[in-house]
Amino acid sequence: MSRADDFERQGFLVLPGFASAAACDALMTRAEELVAGFQPETVSIFTTHEQTRTSDEYFLSSGDQIRFFFEENAFRPDGSLRQDKALSINKIGHALHDLDPLFNPFSRAPGLAALATELGWKQPLLLQSMYIFKQPHIGGEVTSHQDSTFLYTQPLTCLGFWFALEDATLENGCLWALPGGHALGLKKRFVRTPGGGTAFQVLDPTPLPEEGFVPLEVKKGTLVVLHGLLPHKSGANTSSKSRHAYSVHLIDSTATYPRDNWLLRSPSMPPRGF
What we know:
The chain is of the alpha+beta class and 274 residues long. The protein has a single domain (3-252), classed as q2cbj1_9rhob like domain (Jelly Rolls), CATH 2.60.120. It has six helices and 13 strands. The strands form three sheets. It has a seven-stranded antiparallel beta sheet. The two termini are 27 Å apart.
């Protein structure tokens, strides 16, 4: 069975050894450099719990920027950091793939372009990228979700490339996926509201299943490919080991990208392909 057949059947692929250890190490070193240079004038906390999801301007205007988002549990009650800044960041987003000289060529490697074509994307555009730290002890849970909720197109064309830059285990918060769950259809959209801020627009009130998820424990350098409709999640990192990862999300330029999507880019910096 081909990779395209496997992807169509289960909604994800696990491809060990897609990135070299040296390439993973280079991205980790670069992320450390970016965090070291970050002076937090604005504190933005990233959470996937809907009732507290951040919709601040720093977050909403990050589609064509390199911005830094803190872990929920990084701060003391008085607002000071519990530990070093480098161990308090949840993620960097959302345009590393366009603006950083190291992340750009990694994100546009010929092997990724060939894989997108193999899976049926005709004119792929690299829309969003995230460097995810999953910090030791405080790396937050990511609740079950579908990427097309956040990167919606008509028709649906979201595709996720997720790289394990370190070994991902049950202890440090590996991904969990629901095999075949992409056949359930899109449940909701995360949209900008006319009065400012964001909201979830319910498309199908049937909740995503809570059972049937399988853990994706993978080695450093593994690429996990995620269908935009596939329900997936990750647990909190309760271990002393980090779980760094880098993800890039694609859409197809043959589809329409509505302007009420939360992630927008300025006209001067439209999404580019490979």
